[in-house]
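Sequence design from tokenized structure. All designs in this work follow the same two-part layout: the structure record, then the generated sequence. An example of the structure record is given first.
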């Protein structure tokens, strides 16, 4: 059985385990079909976020008032940045996007 791993960024590094279905739903959204996320929300390691929008390389979701997730796809990785009230959404999106751009530039 293959294990899917997602990385939680900001404040501290934690490993969270995403189920194969959670990763599959993210990949479908990146490929232009976010219907599963629109209907059931973005689930990351069992935590539910409200889907906001996505494009071929990025996905954005919100949880409660000021919490959310910015998810970036590179050639070989999916970077998940989960932020809270201490980190503005724009800052989180910028940092995760920059990390994604860096990894793409390195062939990942």
């Amino acid at each position: 059985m293959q294990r899917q791993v997602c990385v939680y960024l900001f404040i501290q590094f934690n490993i969270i385990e995403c189920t194969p279905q959670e990763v599959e739903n993210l990949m479908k959204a990146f490929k232009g079909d976010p219907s599963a996320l629109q209907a059931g929300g973005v689930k990351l390691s069992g935590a539910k976020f409200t889907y906001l929008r996505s494009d071929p390389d990025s996905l954005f979701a919100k949880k409660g008032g000021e919490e959310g997730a910015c998810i970036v796809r590179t050639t070989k990785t999916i970077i998940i940045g989960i932020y809270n009230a201490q980190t503005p959404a724009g800052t989180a999106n910028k940092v995760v996007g920059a990390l994604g751009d860096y990894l793409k530039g390195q062939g990942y």
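The first strand starts at residue 4 and ends at 8. We note this feature because it recurs in several other targets discussed in the main text.
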